[in-house]
UniProtKB/TrEMBL annotation:
Source organism superkingdom: Bacteria
Protein name listed in UniProt: DUF6431 domain-containing protein
Stored InterPro entries: DUF6431 (IPR045536)
Domain DUF6431 residues, every copy: 37-96
Pfam families found in the cross-reference section: DUF6431
Organism (species): Salicibibacter cibi
Amino acid sequence: MIIHDFEMDLTTYAEKGLDNDFPAYACPNPECSSINILHRHGFYWRYGIAEEDIEYIPICRLQCPVCKKTFAILPDFLIPYYQHTLHTVLDQVENVLSFLRCNDFCALGVKTGPGSLLVFC
């Protein structure tokens, strides 16, 4: 898997679809001796979810002409093997942590305060 910054968000990437500017890469396999550029090997489609926005987007696949391994070019706003975007996941984590209070941790028996790792008060 190759993570690439397409310099756009999920919606723009989805609107461009197969017309996105998919870059050329050399084989990232450390065991491969190829100096050639990977060949386009088709696309697969997956969902990307950003808050209320759900898009079905193309993911470009590349194949090395020497070692025959395939690689996907994943947009940097996606997390490998997850449908939710990185931004959406981080926002949700931040929302959950912002609602936690010291009393919530104390009720769970988690130590908070000086000398502890969890200090959200």
